Amino acid sequence: MAFLICIMLMNVTAQSFYGFIGVLVENIGGDVENLGIYYFILAFLEFLVVRNYSKIIGKIGLKNTIVLSMVGTAIKSVAPTMVHSMAGFYCCAATQCISFALSMPSNPVFQARYVDKEYLSTGMLVTTTCSTGLISFLLSATYGRIAERIGVAYMLRWFSLFALAAAVLFWFIGPKDAGMAPSEKSDESTI
Known about the structure:
The protein is mostly helical. The chain has a single domain (2-173), classed as MFS general substrate transporter like domains (Growth Hormone, Chain: A, Up-down Bundle). The protein has helices spanning 2-27, 32-51, 53-60, 62-78, 86-91, 93-114, 120-150, 152-173. Helix 1 (2-27) packs parallel to helix 7, helix 2 crosses helix 6 and helix 7 (120-150) packs antiparallel against helix 8. Mean pLDDT is 82; it is low at 181-191.
């Protein structure tokens, strides 16, 4: 359950960012082409991280990888609100590889380790539905209203606190793993 709550909190931040990335690009004088370049940079960096995911998780462990992805999500949401050039915005793409490229593979790895095999498909369904679909559905109108009232940059800064809260919560109540191999399973269960 702790994992699900933390993933939902992190995705409150992530979904707010994805909904307004185009606005951020326009605010610093960019256009659709600049947004395409940004997505190219982050896709390339994500590829490098995902390609080396097993090495990363082997060195720092699953729990630390998940916490790092949550902190990366908070940084990803705040960093682009503080730059005033497209070059700075492109540099912010590096935060995407810390957040998205580490969190996406961590979800199934976490599920495989900590959810009983008979509940694995249900666990994946619930985690995916609650963390992305439900958050997007429930908050899409809310994001727009908040952005209209306080501005996109301030909204993203405030919403980054959800990802930081998720990181702190998961750090303290998440499972204790010491870089276990993906095939090993802990006796602890947090779902």
